[in-house]
Amino acid sequence: MTKKIEGGCLCGAVRYESDAEPLFAVNCHCRHCQMTSGSTHLPGIGLPAAAFSLTGDVTWYKITNDRGGTSMRSFCPTCGTPIMGQIEGEELVFLHAITLDDPSVFTPQMDIFESSAQHFDRFDEALPRFPGMPPMGE
Fold this sequence. Notes:
- There is one protein chain.
- By secondary structure, this protein is mainly β.
- It is about 5% helix and about 35% strand.
- The protein contains one helix and ten strands; from the N terminus they run E-E-E-H-E-E-E-E-E-E-E.
- The chain has one helix at about 30-35; strands spanning about 5-10, 15-20, 25-30, 40-50, 50-55, 60-65, 70-75, 80-85, 90-95, 110.
- The strands form two sheets. It has a seven-stranded mixed beta sheet. A three-stranded antiparallel beta sheet has the order 1-2-5, with no helix packed on it.
- It starts with a strand and ends in a 26-residue tail after the last strand.
- The relative contact order is 0.24.
């Protein structure tokens, strides 16, 4: 990916940027990502929260995740574009890759939560797949 990551919502009321190198790039097939994206999966980028800046107001929606913790999803209150997710207590932003100014720079490294994938979804056979969340940082 490019060094500087920039993007925002459909109406332009929310903008973001980061100079950090992404920690990971995935296609997430979990049910929450399906519902958030309105599709079979959500292409997402993990970034350190400390290197991420957001301008404009977002609305947050909290849910209980599969580990029993709290996940938060944000979206633009004007146009409804989903922007990012975070897990309470973690210093990570899960950015929706489709909101990048140039989404063509997104290249997924893996498919996660394959166990929740819809039967009509298609996979890139070259990517590794994980039934849930793979071990990270170990």
